[in-house]
Design a protein that fits this description.
By secondary structure, the protein is mostly beta strands. It has one domain (about 10-90): 2Fe-2S iron-sulphur cluster binding domain, sarcosine oxidase, alpha subunit, N-terminal domain (Ubiquitin-like (UB roll), Roll), CATH 3.10.20.440. The protein has 1 helix and 7 strands. The strands form 2 sheets. Strands 2-1-7-5-6 form a 5-stranded mixed sheet, with helices on one face. It starts with 15 loop residues before the first strand and ends in a 15-residue tail after the last strand. The mean pLDDT is about 85. Bound molecules: FE2/S2 (inorganic) cluster. FE2/S2 (inorganic) cluster binds near residues 59, 65 and 68.
């Protein structure tokens, strides 16, 4: 759902772009954050919590709480509330901890 006629919205939000969430093509407005684009398409749960696997989505909407992590174009644990949506962007649900390793050093 979008507000298309608002006195404070500027024209930068009027151009429609396409992006993908879990492989499904969706429509967003240019200038939106990824979080806003997802919510505009009715998606409110972006991932699950690390320990209890509880649903997570937008909480602070200003980059402070890390509740809105998603994977964007292969980059794991990206803040969706601080990232602008781009044409053709591939966004995925955050299903758990990032894949980290010790590399070959053995430390
Ligand atoms: S909603 Fe809090 S960091 Fe994105």
């Amino acid at each position: 759902m979008y507000i298309n006629d608002h006195p404070l919205l500027e024209s930068e939000f009027l151009e429609e772009i396409t992006f993908f969430y879990e492989g499904k093509q969706l429509i967003a407005k240019s200038g939106q954050t990824v979080a806003a684009a997802l919510m505009g398409n009715g998606i409110k749960v972006f991932g699950v919590s690390r320990k209890l696997q509880q649903p997570r989505g937008v909480f602070c909407a200003n980059g402070r709480c890390c509740s809105c992590f998603v994977t964007i174009d292969g980059l794991d644990h990206t803040l969706s509330c601080m990232t602008r949506i781009e044409e053709g962007m591939q966004v995925f649900f955050n299903g758990g901890d990032p894949v980290v390793g010790r590399g070959g050093s053995g430390i």
